[in-house]
Design brief:
The chain is an all-alpha fold.
Amino acid sequence: MNEEIPTVEVAENTDVQIEGGDISTSTETQVEAQVEAQVEAQVESPAETQVETQVETSKIESLLDVLGDIPEAPNEGLIEALDEKTMSNLPDSVKGLLKHVVAAERQRFSQKQSRLDARQAELDKQREEIKKLNDEVIRNRADLNKVFLDPNLQELLKSADLKEEDMADPMSPEGMEQRMDKMVAERFKRFQEPITRSAQEAQQMAAYREFVSKNPKMEDMSFKTEVRDFMKAEREKGSSVTLDVAYAVVERNRLVQEQQRREESARRQRQEASRQVNRSSMSSQNTSSKPVPDWVMKDGYGGLRGNAARVKYLQDNPKALKALRAQQRRG
């Protein structure tokens, strides 16, 4: 899950711009990895580790021993000679044994499936909890970023950009105060920058997810790749487009391409129908002894092949059908 974090621009109108591969945050990646590790390390519950009800009792085992060596894997050759009649003629006791073994196998499969379903449900629950935690982290970062964006605080941070020549004499009370303010502002700025950057990334990721939730086509890898490639091509041209604009362009291009494919398919069908009509016309004028031309059986007719094409041709060409019947009467 080492996916690179996309570059996303979020303005007041929530325009988003992406770059890179699949979308993921470092927080999500870490938590997802923890979940996967937990799943890998997960041992069967005490109920699973308890000795299951023994289906193959000593009696059954002794009965199966009579069959001799049983292969490790199913072998189609063992049942090749069997049919329904052979099975129906088996003694009731043998049928009972087979029913018991089949029922036991079904029971084991059902129990295993139930355990898998329970584990999957637990995974789904953990992923949902991760999503909630991630959303909470995003909200907390956004709230913290709002504190740093307070106008009074931003005014204070301007002291970090003061140049030496712009400050009063360092030995004067004013100069000393300016330098103290500058030092505090620089330290606070260093503390603020990574938090602000993280909050912005979280906000951008939230905007991207909201966009995907409203536009499910972004879940399709090929569609998302087209969107990303379009945005990359536009950047290389020196222009920049937002995610929603790129999405609309790719969606429109796909619709146009699909329309073109349908039109091309319809055109080919019309051409094929026209060729077959021409062949039928030529055949009706043909005095050949063959009522059905050879090309009908060879190339097909009306989308059909073989005898079906022959029948279709005769249905569409009454004269050919009449000639065939006359030929058949003549023997």
